Amino acid sequence: MGFSDLPLGRRDLTHLGAASIAVAGLGAAGRAVAVPARPRRRRLEEQSDGVATLDLPLAPLAAGTGRGDGMRTPVIATTRFTVLGVTWRQGQGRVRARWRRESGGWTDWTSLPQLTHGPDRGTAEGDRARAATDLVWTGPSTAVQVELVGDQREPVLALLRPGKRPEDALADAVGSIPGGAGGREVEGVPMPGLLYRSAWNADPGLRNGRPSYNDRIRQVHVHHTVSSNDYARADVPGMIRAMYRYHTQNLGWSDIGYNFLVDRFGRLWEGRAGGPRRAVRGAHTLGFNHASVGVAAIGNFETARVGKPMIRALVRVAAWKLDTYGGDPHRTVWVRSNGSDRFRPGRLVELPTIDGHRDTNETACPGGHLYDVLPVVRRRAARRIRSFRR
Questions:
Q1: When you count CB atoms within 10 A of the terminal residue's CB, does the N or C end of the chain come out lower?
Q2: pTM recorded for the entire structure
């Protein structure tokens, strides 16, 4: 049952802002009868990269929840969005939301997971970053309501709708290089086939700052994007652009956080700029970016199993990056934390060379199904490295 189906007496009146009440006429006793007016529909504006966006400060809209510190917005009607997130300048607390799907009506109230990846603290990128929730992929929706409990300051709701560009259908042929990079590697595991940033039409104007580099790569951190699992090939460039825009324009990062992304079709995409062969420092694993590479699997692997093409792509990128720096997928390494929500700054932590995001931060990422196949990824990556060292 959606909110509009409830009798007025059972509705939470924070759904109805003062501007949403209109006088319809006089009742039998001569009193004015107030009924909810149709809320103003806010428009997402399409940007030059094909992603439509709406960034909406929440404090002016929200009313107290009646449960201590916190706020709840009225229903916010919009044009279509498919992705949402909430950011704030500082403070801590919980964020919940519900949204009205184009088909299926209102969802239940859902806790939005707090972002646990990002640039390391104490860096220029980390110092300007905003706290936030993870991106939540809602499917086509036309209204949302948000509740914050805590002391989050200057909260902003970000709504996005990735769009397609004509070039997206040509991603497999444009802006890509074949496996082996045309024989430029003399020995060792070759670079796998890769789609460059130009294949997903990254807008260079969204970046802020130059890439920074690690001395070496000791680990591969595996993530998932918690997005849909039934996307088409031509949807992927727009999905990556939406992540890129959220990371740079809403979170204040210098670039997309992940070094690489893999899709369900087994394609490998370049994420953060700086050169795929180099040890580019990402913003993927808070506290552990300084000696690692981050690879995000596009999909939600709490709910879906991992297909063979995606596993093959994860194996190839992990074997290539670790072999370049003498890494062994079967081993563990000791890494000093730069500070995460799980390990204090300066603490030495023993971690698998290929690990899941949950090994370093308080998160379910990369989803239970993907985490369970990491032993297969390690075993096959080690076999691939051995085959090229003979």
A1: C
A2: 0.87
Least confident of 16-20, 125-129, 173-177, 363-367: 16-20
Interval 61-82: pLDDT, tens:
877 755 556 899 999 999 999 9
Q: Is 19 part of any domain? A: no
Do 101 and 203 share a domain, yes or no?
Answer: no
The last residue of a domain, from among 161, 176, 204: 161
Let me know whether 190 and 329 are in one domain: yes
Do residues 194 and 212 both lie within one domain? yes
CATH at 116: 2.60.120
For residues 287 and 340, membership in a common domain is answered with: yes
The rounded distance, in Å, linking the Cα atoms of 159 and 86 is 9
pLDDT at 7 exceeding the cut of 50: no
Q: For residues 319-324, give the mean pLDDT.
A: 96
Domains in the chain, number = 2
Domain end marker among 127, 143, 161: 161
Q: Which residues contact residue 101 at a Cβ distance below 8 angstroms, ignoring those fewer than 6 apart?
A: 107, 138, 139, 140, 141, 142
Q: Domain range spanning residue 56?
A: 40-161
